[in-house]
Amino acid sequence: MRTVGVLALQGDFAAHAAALLRHGLATRQVRRPEHLVGIAGLVLPGGESTTMLNLLASQGLEQPLAQFLRVGSVPVFATCAGLILLAREVSDPPQRSYGVLDVKVARNGYGRQIASGRFSIAGDGVPAGTTGVFIRAPRIVQTGSGVKTLASRGADPVLVQQGQVLAACFHPELEDDHVVVRTFARLVHASADQ
Ligand code: GLN
């Protein structure tokens, strides 16, 4: 079985592990630099991005993760706070980020907890009728030319892909069998088959 790393410092990493297992992928919790070695893909889960950045620094993972992302040899799936970590530019409030995904993101661009919920999303990357669970979700306010929008909520891109990086503003891992988890699993198998 192929093993996908799930950054497990904070946030909903357990839900990602359970979702990937349903698609034939084993997972490994990534808490130290050596856990990044040999994985067939990496998940950056939702949670609280500032806390994650602090923990990445205190666990000695900040630079190893930067290096891993720069090499970019396996698929990466970032949801919510994970997407914020990867963005080129972060506002509302501003924060440092890895910059490997060419989007500008407003961290709390959909409002506070009260504005969270399930919303319809549409686009070439998802079948008609797909929904996403948004929780204090980041809002993508600009995408670079190398970024493909696979689904939008209204006019906003909410599922994007740039090369091996797949990123969602919502939480597909919280649903039983969300199409976007399948999309990532396919990317992992295709990349490992090469
Ligand atoms: N708004 C949160 C942040 O800034 C992300 C919310 C989430 O991951 N559900 O980190």
Walk me through the structure.
This protein has 194 residues and is α/β, with parallel strands linked by helices. The protein has 5 helices and 12 strands. The strands form 3 sheets. Strands 2-1-3-4-12-11-10 form a 7-stranded mixed sheet. The protein has a 3-stranded mixed sheet with strand order 5-6-9. Strands 7-8 form a two-stranded antiparallel sheet. Helix 1 (13-21) links the parallel strand 1 and strand 2. The two termini are 16 Å apart. Bound molecules: glutamine.
- The Rg value, from CA coordinates, equals 15 Å
The ordered H/E elements are EHEEHHEHEEEEEEEEH
| Unreliable stretches | none
Strand order of the largest sheet: 2-1-3-4-12-11-10
Major beta sheet summary: 7 strands, mixed
Question: What multimeric state do the chains show?
Answer: single chain
Number of helical segments with 4 or more residues:
5
First-last Cα distance:
16 Å
Rounded mean pLDDT is: 96
Judged by helices, strands and strand pairing, the structural class is: alpha/beta
Extended strand count: 12
Our estimate of the beta-strand percent is 25-35%
Bound molecules: glutamine
Outline of the structure:
With 194 residues, the chain is an alpha/beta fold. The chain is built from five helices and twelve strands.
What is the strand and helix layout of this fold?
Blueprint: E1 3-7, H1 13-21, E2 26-30, E3 42-44, H2 49-58, H3 62-71, E4 76-79, H4 81-86, E5 87-91, E6 101-106, E7 117-120, E8 131-134, E9 139-143, E10 148-153, E11 156-162, E12 165-168, H5 179-193
